Amino acid sequence: MPSDAEIAKETLEQFKKVQRYMTAAKKEDAKETYAILKEEYLSLKALLNVIGVNLIDIDVMKE
Prior knowledge:
Elements: H1 4-27, H2 31-50
């Protein structure tokens, strides 16, 4: 079973990746893609909040 630190690290990496894709989708006006990514973003953000990660500096989307 992965440790809390391993879960946090993996989730942070996914969170950063989703934010990069969301930024690109927004630039390209890819509304459907953005909506799908936003669902993933919100799930990851909720998980990070539950495990106590401070998102102030890393949440560039602020949604």
